[in-house]
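Sequence, please.
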Protein backbone atom coordinates (compact mmCIF):
# COMPACT_ATOMS: atom_id res chain seq x y z
CA UNK A 1 0.00 0.00 0.00
CA UNK A 2 1.27 3.40 -0.96
CA UNK A 3 0.75 5.63 2.08
CA UNK A 4 -0.58 9.23 1.97
CA UNK A 5 2.95 10.68 1.74
CA UNK A 6 3.74 8.50 -1.28
CA UNK A 7 0.50 9.43 -3.02
CA UNK A 8 0.99 13.16 -2.30
CA UNK A 9 4.51 12.97 -3.66
CA UNK A 10 3.42 11.37 -6.92
CA UNK A 11 5.22 8.07 -6.32
CA UNK A 12 2.34 5.77 -7.27
CA UNK A 13 3.60 5.12 -10.79
CA UNK A 14 7.14 4.34 -9.68
CA UNK A 15 6.01 1.89 -7.01
CA UNK A 16 3.80 0.00 -9.45
CA UNK A 17 6.52 0.08 -12.10
CA UNK A 18 9.08 -1.55 -9.80
CA UNK A 19 6.79 -4.46 -8.95
CA UNK A 20 5.67 -4.87 -12.56
CA UNK A 21 9.18 -4.81 -13.98
CA UNK A 22 10.23 -7.48 -11.49
CA UNK A 23 7.51 -9.71 -12.94
CA UNK A 24 4.95 -9.51 -10.15
CA UNK A 25 1.29 -9.63 -11.11
CA UNK A 26 -1.10 -6.88 -10.04
CA UNK A 27 -4.43 -8.50 -9.16
CA UNK A 28 -6.10 -5.77 -7.09
CA UNK A 29 -5.84 -1.99 -6.76
CA UNK A 30 -7.93 0.80 -5.24
CA UNK A 31 -7.58 4.41 -4.13
CA UNK A 32 -9.30 5.45 -0.93
CA UNK A 33 -9.00 7.70 2.11
CA UNK A 34 -9.04 5.14 4.94
CA UNK A 35 -11.26 5.78 7.96
CA UNK A 36 -9.55 5.95 11.35
CA UNK A 37 -11.26 2.64 12.12
CA UNK A 38 -9.77 0.93 9.06
CA UNK A 39 -6.33 2.42 9.78
CA UNK A 40 -6.50 1.17 13.39
CA UNK A 41 -7.51 -2.32 12.24
CA UNK A 42 -4.69 -2.36 9.70
CA UNK A 43 -2.13 -1.50 12.38
CA UNK A 44 -3.86 -3.47 15.20
CA UNK A 45 -0.55 -5.17 16.10
CA UNK A 46 0.76 -1.75 17.23
CA UNK A 47 -2.29 -0.79 19.33
CA UNK A 48 -1.04 0.46 22.71
CA UNK A 49 2.41 1.50 21.51
CA UNK A 50 3.37 5.16 21.93
CA UNK A 51 3.43 5.85 18.20
CA UNK A 52 0.03 4.21 17.51
CA UNK A 53 -2.22 7.35 17.66
CA UNK A 54 0.08 9.26 15.29
CA UNK A 55 0.21 6.26 12.96
CA UNK A 56 -3.58 6.07 12.74
CA UNK A 57 -3.79 9.86 12.21
CA UNK A 58 -1.24 9.64 9.42
CA UNK A 59 -2.69 6.68 7.54
CA UNK A 60 -6.17 8.23 7.57
CA UNK A 61 -4.90 11.71 6.63
CA UNK A 62 -5.19 11.29 2.86
CA UNK A 63 -5.52 8.94 -0.07
CA UNK A 64 -3.70 5.63 -0.12
CA UNK A 65 -3.34 3.13 -2.96
CA UNK A 66 -4.02 -0.40 -1.73
CA UNK A 67 -2.73 -3.15 -3.99
CA UNK A 68 -2.46 -6.91 -4.14
CA UNK A 69 0.46 -8.37 -6.06
CA UNK A 70 0.98 -12.06 -6.69
CA UNK A 71 4.11 -14.02 -7.56
CA UNK A 72 6.81 -16.34 -6.32
CA UNK A 73 7.96 -15.36 -2.80
CA UNK A 74 6.26 -11.96 -3.20
CA UNK A 75 5.93 -11.26 0.55
CA UNK A 76 9.63 -11.73 1.30
CA UNK A 77 10.83 -10.12 -1.92
CA UNK A 78 8.30 -7.33 -1.57
CA UNK A 79 9.66 -6.45 1.88
CA UNK A 80 13.17 -6.37 0.43
CA UNK A 81 12.01 -4.01 -2.32
CA UNK A 82 10.26 -1.81 0.29
CA UNK A 83 13.33 -1.58 2.56
CA UNK A 84 13.87 -1.22 6.31
CA UNK A 85 11.16 0.41 8.47
CA UNK A 86 13.37 3.41 9.22
CA UNK A 87 14.27 4.94 5.85
CA UNK A 88 17.59 6.13 7.25
CA UNK A 89 18.54 2.45 7.59
CA UNK A 90 17.14 1.44 4.17
CA UNK A 91 19.53 0.56 1.38
CA UNK A 92 19.59 2.71 -1.74
CA UNK A 93 17.62 0.90 -4.42
CA UNK A 94 14.79 0.11 -2.03
CA UNK A 95 11.67 2.27 -2.10
CA UNK A 96 12.24 3.69 1.37
CA UNK A 97 15.98 4.01 0.79
CA UNK A 98 15.35 5.99 -2.39
CA UNK A 99 12.47 8.15 -1.16
CA UNK A 100 12.26 8.31 2.63
CA UNK A 101 13.85 10.04 5.59
CA UNK A 102 11.43 9.76 8.54
CA UNK A 103 10.11 6.50 10.01
CA UNK A 104 6.61 7.99 10.31
CA UNK A 105 6.57 8.96 6.61
CA UNK A 106 8.00 5.87 5.02
CA UNK A 107 6.08 5.96 1.73
CA UNK A 108 4.84 2.40 1.48
CA UNK A 109 3.54 -0.52 3.50
CA UNK A 110 4.38 -4.11 2.70
CA UNK A 111 2.83 -7.14 4.41
CA UNK A 112 5.39 -8.74 6.72
CA UNK A 113 4.28 -12.40 6.37
CA UNK A 114 1.93 -14.50 4.27
CA UNK A 115 -0.40 -14.61 7.28
CA UNK A 116 -0.40 -10.79 7.54
CA UNK A 117 -0.97 -10.52 3.79
CA UNK A 118 -4.06 -12.74 3.99
CA UNK A 119 -5.45 -10.70 6.90
CA UNK A 120 -4.72 -7.38 5.21
CA UNK A 121 -6.12 -8.42 1.82
CA UNK A 122 -9.38 -9.44 3.52
CA UNK A 123 -9.44 -6.10 5.36
CA UNK A 124 -8.93 -3.92 2.28
CA UNK A 125 -10.56 -5.93 -0.54
CA UNK A 126 -13.70 -7.90 -1.28
CA UNK A 127 -13.12 -11.23 -3.03
CA UNK A 128 -14.69 -9.99 -6.29
CA UNK A 129 -12.26 -7.05 -6.41
CA UNK A 130 -9.32 -9.40 -7.08
CA UNK A 131 -8.66 -10.58 -10.63
CA UNK A 132 -7.87 -14.21 -11.37
CA UNK A 133 -5.60 -14.56 -14.42
CA UNK A 134 -2.39 -16.28 -15.48
CA UNK A 135 0.61 -14.31 -16.76
CA UNK A 136 1.90 -17.01 -19.10
CA UNK A 137 4.75 -14.78 -20.30
CA UNK A 138 6.52 -14.81 -16.91
CA UNK A 139 6.16 -18.38 -15.63
CA UNK A 140 6.59 -21.47 -17.77
P1 LIG B 1 4.62 -1.04 7.67
O1 LIG B 1 4.87 -1.68 6.34
O2 LIG B 1 4.01 0.32 7.59
O3 LIG B 1 3.86 -1.96 8.60
O4 LIG B 1 6.06 -0.81 8.31
P2 LIG B 1 7.07 -1.94 8.83
O5 LIG B 1 6.39 -3.26 8.84
O6 LIG B 1 8.35 -1.80 8.10
O7 LIG B 1 7.34 -1.46 10.32
P3 LIG B 1 6.35 -1.48 11.53
B1 LIG B 1 7.12 -1.81 12.86
O8 LIG B 1 5.18 -2.40 11.27
O9 LIG B 1 5.86 0.01 11.59
C1 LIG B 1 4.52 0.38 11.35
C2 LIG B 1 4.43 1.87 11.18
O10 LIG B 1 4.77 2.50 12.40
C3 LIG B 1 5.76 3.46 12.21
N1 LIG B 1 6.64 3.44 13.36
C4 LIG B 1 7.19 2.25 13.76
C5 LIG B 1 6.90 4.61 14.04
O11 LIG B 1 6.39 5.69 13.67
N2 LIG B 1 7.73 4.56 15.13
C6 LIG B 1 8.29 3.41 15.56
O12 LIG B 1 9.05 3.43 16.55
C7 LIG B 1 8.03 2.19 14.84
C8 LIG B 1 8.63 0.87 15.27
C9 LIG B 1 6.45 3.10 10.93
C10 LIG B 1 5.37 2.44 10.13
N3 LIG B 1 4.66 3.39 9.28
N4 LIG B 1 4.51 4.50 9.07
N5 LIG B 1 4.13 5.47 8.62
MG1 LIG C 1 4.52 -3.63 9.62
Amino acid sequence: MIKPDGVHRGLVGDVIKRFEQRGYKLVGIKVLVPSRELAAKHYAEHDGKPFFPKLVDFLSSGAVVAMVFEGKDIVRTGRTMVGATNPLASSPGTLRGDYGIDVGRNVIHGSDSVESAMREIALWFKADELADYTPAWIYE
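Residues 54 and 121 are 23 Å apart (CA to CA).
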